């Protein structure tokens, strides 16, 4: 079993080692897998905008697909507060103005704020995930704090270029499991155990 710290290092490296061509085709396959997910019941979809220097999966084609085929879905993006690792959520529309923060994340400057309680679908950035849907992020707990404020039924859908690993060694009581993870090859379902962590 590997620790989150080891996995962070390993998967950061794996992403950086992808060629531009590999990355492009993996991103295309992620879009094709995403298109298999039923979205008719979704009202508010939270998305992350990729940190390009870390080679995160590209969410822009996914966002464009949702805008075109599910125009009723309200897209939501966040600003991160690094003093308490919280996030503020804003509606994404054609007027949204972005500023790239010091970590290379494009963030909305202002706009209509949305409460986490109404968000019913979250696209989750990750470095790695395990066979039970536990995830490894950058280690600040932004998403675990965010999930704790959302409804139990909210879909938490991870996006990863790579397949799951065996169990993460240092799961903790704040870990909120994913409901699904999308990889270029397939979609993993982790059932709907609400926010039950069973770490
Ligand atoms: N696209 C995207 N947005 C996101 C996240 C994410 O993973 N991806 N986050 C998910 O939580 C939050 C931001 N999380 C972050 C947490 C830590 C660092 C950070 O410490 N960066 C350092 C060192 C990075 C490293 O370990 O190499 C740096 O840039 O100096 C950056 C972002 C919210 N928004
Ligand atoms: N709901 C929460 N309330 C308070 N602290 C939390 C909460 N969720 C996570 N934390 C803390 O945040 C820190 C980072 O968590 P962890 O190592 O699990 O991050 P991670 O899995 O890499 O995820 P993330 O992408 O969210 O940073 C831990 O010290 C954890 O205790």
UniProtKB/TrEMBL annotation:
SUPFAM superfamilies: NagB/RpiA/CoA transferase-like. Transmembrane segments: none annotated. One of its GO terms (biological process) is folic acid-containing compound biosynthetic process. Substrate binds at residues 49, 56. The keyword Metal-binding applies. Its cofactor is Mg(2+). Its EC number is 6.3.3.2. GO terms for molecular function: 5-formyltetrahydrofolate cyclo-ligase activity; ATP binding; metal ion binding. Keywords: ATP-binding, Ligase, Magnesium, Metal-binding, Nucleotide-binding. Coiled coil: none annotated. ATP binds at residues 4-8, 135-143. It is an enzyme of class 6 (ligase). InterPro entries: FTHF_cligase, FTHF_cligase-like_sf, NagB/RpiA_transferase-like. Belongs to the 5-formyltetrahydrofolate cyclo-ligase family. This is 5-formyltetrahydrofolate cyclo-ligase. It comes from Sphingobacterium detergens.
